[in-house]
Structure prediction request, 238 residues.
Amino acid sequence: MTDLDTRRAELADNLTAVRSRIDAATRAAGRSDTVALTVVTKFFPAADVAALAALGVADVGENRHQEAESKHAECLAAGVTGLRWHFIGGLQSNKASAVAHWADVVESVDRPKLVSALDRGAAEREAPLDVLLQVSLDPPGREQRAGVDADDLAALAERVAAADHLRLRGLMAVAPLGEEPEPAFERLARIRARFVADHPAADVLSAGMSGDLEAAITHGATHVRVGTAVLGSRPGVQ
Ligand SMILES: *Cc1c(COP(=O)(O)O)cnc(C)c1O
Prediction:
């Protein structure tokens, strides 16, 4: 076997394991819908993205603009098409319009300033840009929080809904560090119930990662974002 074959076999095994975790959690939650998998490919090369696409992965997630932009271009050049690219990272408003050029979904919109920048970038696209609002599940006062407070969610949602080139699709969240994911995802489910009452078409809930996807699915996640459990430990981080 070549290195490529070995890597591909490893990714295939990991994908099978993750998909069965997702299926088991979906059944255990008594749900009859399906939960979508976004494979988080940050820090891994375009060759891995190509291998994942060949294994039937339809959605990939990236958290840094420059890295994602070049990986996206490499994949296109290699003839890897049909993937949906999700931006899941912290977004600076001066990069937002550039992200709209390669991303199909931006999951991390958490403040008004990003909305106008993304809308400007999305104006150059053929199709509207799908947007999720990132909700903060952190206790108030915690430093380096990403996400909009539940109290400010409705106003932010109105802005996205009013933007010409954006399509409000739902919510995203990350469980806080150093806390059990269960109560955080339970809070998220309550926030989401209020949100979809106002925006019934925005029914995506992106929550759950390698370590907590079961808890997220229990509390209504429609999409999980899994990196490590599919690709292994990220090179050069942690
Ligand atoms: C990196 C990342 C993930 C994937 O995390 P794993 O623990 O590797 O599965 C999911 N969501 C966001 C926002 C991330 O930055």
Observations:
- The longest helix spans residues 3-28.
